[in-house]
From TrEMBL:
It comes from the Bacteria. It comes from Pontivivens ytuae. This is DNA polymerase III subunit chi. InterPro entries: DNA_pol3_chi, PolIII_chi_sf. One of its GO terms (biological process) is positive regulation of DNA-templated DNA replication initiation. Pfam families: DNA_pol3_chi (PF04364).
Length: 152
């Protein structure tokens, strides 16, 4: 499995999460978005409800009675009650190597202008490269995502 690292430098976190969610749902998959704090997840929740008038992106916040039914679940927990195959780590949520095997796809999105977020992503990259998983680093160039590095 590949663990994808996305360094934000032009796009917003909200736009990037929306794109991931749309593509995951289009493939018939489910996704869990794990953040480090509730405030940022509140912002993502609002964005996913309002980002486009003609679109509906079904999602929910963890802790409700219908967590298992949510195609996209926003959480700060390690639990995955919706059976998601895609894990998106945002806003400082850290990678847990033992949990990787429970997913088909894992992506860590970090702010490239934040030195601490960049250092944390480097630490997680090194941890992935010590496993049998492949780490893939993506960066934005001219409004497009470009693969910059790949381990093993």
């Amino acid at each position: 499995m590949e663990v994808l690292f996305y360094r934000l430098s032009g796009s917003t976190l909200e736009a990037t999460v929306t794109t991931f969610a749309e593509r995951t749902l289009a493939r018939g998959g489910r996704m869990v978005v794990k953040g480090a704090g509730a405030a940022r997840l509140d912002m993502l929740d609002t964005h996913l409800w309002t980002y486009r008038d003609e679109a509906f992106l079904p999602h929910g916040r963890a802790g409700g009675p219908h967590d298992a039914e949510q195609p996209v679940l926003l959480t700060t927990s390690d639990e995955v009650p919706n059976g998601a195959g895609t894990l998106l780590l945002v806003d400082g949520a850290r990678l847990a190597i033992p949990a990787l095997d429970g997913f088909e796809r894992v992506a860590l999105i970090f702010d490239g202008s934040d030195p601490q977020a960049t250092e944390d992503a480097r630490t997680d990259w090194r941890a992935v490269t010590e496993t049998d998983h492949t780490a893939v680093f993506w960066a934005e160039e001219d409004g497009r995502w470009v693969e910059k590095a790949r381990s093993g």
